[in-house]
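User: tokens in, sequence out, please.
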């Protein structure tokens, strides 16, 4: 993997994620921005897809189970050519193809509809079972929130994935330490989350979720494991790269226009620094 290329893509995804949310003026900045590095590795390196044929039967699937991270999905898909980027600057407006939460019937590239936390993990497992039945060698990549992991359904789905020996699904848990209105520790402490997932039988790794090399290597390790599903726990900083939201790890944000402009300028600068490096 060309790490510099992927880091550049991650910076582009961060900037476009901000632009997408700025088009509405408010939204889920926190849980979108912290996934830019993962999305860059997935769509810049790891996944098999055709932006001109989003329903290609042999594609790898993405299930953004924490469906409120729609903006980072729309930014990534726009950059990868699923549609003109500008089209996503209609976030959640009437008749848009870009609702705040991901919807498979509206947005090219979105494989499953999500938003009700927990459910995407189960439907992702269903997709992985279906792909096996069809004899396909593609994979399902499913992104779960750490607050979302409060849902019992997440653990039922892990249990099923293990029992069915689904080595064609890789879960990611975005361990940013925060959910909607506070820290995960205060609201419902998971203790050692990776140890719990591992206890369910999944091949589990925990890494720095902003290190593209570590993300790539963990995915490669997961791909090499036969007969068990995998989970990669990503230690992340909620709202990473959004100047107004990162200090308090905001879940959703509605900053003033001045604060928006500051954040967009900082993100453009970060991108330019990588381009000139
Ligand atoms: C079943 C369900 N309950 C509540 C919500 C409202 N809700 C949306 S996001 C969120 C917090 C999610 O926290 P986390 O999974 O940690 O997401 P992240 O920190 O990555 O944004 C909640 C409670 C929901 N979407 N679905
Ligand atoms: Mg969280």
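Assistant: Sequence out:
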């Amino acid at each position: 993997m060309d790490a510099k290329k992927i880091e550049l893509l991650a910076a582009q995804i961060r900037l476009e994620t901000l632009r997408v949310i700025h088009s509405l003026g408010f939204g889920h900045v926190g849980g979108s921005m912290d996934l830019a590095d993962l999305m860059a590795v997935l769509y810049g390196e790891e996944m098999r897809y055709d932006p001109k044929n989003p329903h290609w039967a042999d594609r790898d699937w993405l299930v953004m189970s924490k469906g409120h991270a729609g903006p980072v999905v729309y930014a990534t898909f726009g950059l990868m050519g699923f549609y003109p980027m500008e089209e996503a600057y209609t976030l959640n407006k009437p008749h848009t193809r870009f609702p705040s939460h991901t919807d498979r019937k509206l947005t090219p590239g979105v494989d499953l509809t999500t938003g009700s936390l927990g459910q995407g993990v189960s439907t992702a497992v269903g997709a992985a079972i279906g792909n096996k039945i069809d004899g396909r060698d593609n994979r399902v990549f499913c992104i779960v929130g750490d607050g979302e992991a409060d849902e019992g359904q997440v653990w039922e789905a892990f249990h099923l994935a293990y029992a069915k020996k689904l080595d064609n699904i890789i879960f990611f848990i975005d361990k940013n330490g925060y959910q909607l209105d506070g820290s995960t520790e205060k609201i419902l402490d998971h203790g050692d989350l990776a140890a719990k997932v591992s206890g369910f039988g999944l091949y589990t790794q925990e890494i720095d979720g902003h290190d593209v090399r570590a993300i790539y290597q963990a995915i490669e390790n997961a791909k090499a494991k036969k007969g068990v599903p995998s989970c990669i726990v990503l230690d992340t900083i909620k709202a990473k790269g959004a100047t107004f939201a990162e200090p308090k790890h905001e879940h959703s944000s509605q900053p003033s226009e001045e604060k928006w402009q500051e954040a967009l300028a900082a993100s453009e600068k970060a991108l330019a620094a990588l381009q000139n490096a």
